[in-house]
Amino acid sequence: MRPAAGVLGRLLLNTSVVIDVDSIDPNRRPVEVAVSALTMAELAAGLHATDDPDERARRQDRLQRAEAAFDPLPFDAEASRAYGRIYAAVASAGRKARGARAVDLLIAATACSSGLPLYSKNPDDLRALDGLVDVVAL
């Protein structure tokens, strides 16, 4: 795991980074970014996870901007195989690989299968992935 320093090359953004992209220091933003189809699914689901109409409008705007900006990477057969390795690494480290963390691990599998570093605001959640995914801490 490494901290973000200066302008970075192509990275896969974790959902939390997409949500807060406007608050990231421009000097720490990657030059070229990608997102997983799973991130787009989380953004779409987020619309229905609030009863606050103002928050729902913000989430709708975020989803529409992301849909316009990205052609998401699919969760395909290669990512499925990578998820097996990710799951095994997390389980071997004595950490939970299911539940709330599952989507983050599926996104990490997308990064692994695509050979891309993963830009994350929650690098501690991914610390068991050394050697599988290069996690760049925001």
Task: Tell me the layout of helices and strands.
Layout: E1 2-3, E2 11-13, H1 15-19, E3 33-34, H2 37-46, H3 53-69, H4 77-92, H5 102-114, E4 118-120, E5 135-137
Radius of gyration: 15 Å
Number of alpha- plus pi-helical segments? 5
Strand order of the largest sheet: 1-5-4-2-3
What is the total tally of β strands? 5
Let me know the largest β-sheet: 5 strands, parallel
Structural class call reads: alpha/beta
Low-confidence stretches: none
* Overall 3D form: globular
Quote the beta fraction: 5-15%
Estimate the mean pLDDT confidence.
88
- Output the helix-strand order: EEHEHHHHEE
Could you describe the 3D structure shown?
It is a single chain. The protein is an alpha/beta fold. 44% of the residues lie in helices and 9% in strands. It is built from five helices and five strands; from the N terminus they run ββαβααααββ. The chain has helices at residues 15-19, 37-46, 53-69, 77-92, 102-114, and strands at 2-3, 11-13, 33-34, 118-120, 135-137. The chain has a five-stranded parallel sheet. Helix 1 (15-19) links the parallel strand 2 and strand 3 (33-34). Helix 2 runs antiparallel to helix 3 and helix 4 packs across helix 5 (102-114). The chain is globular. The mean pLDDT is 88.
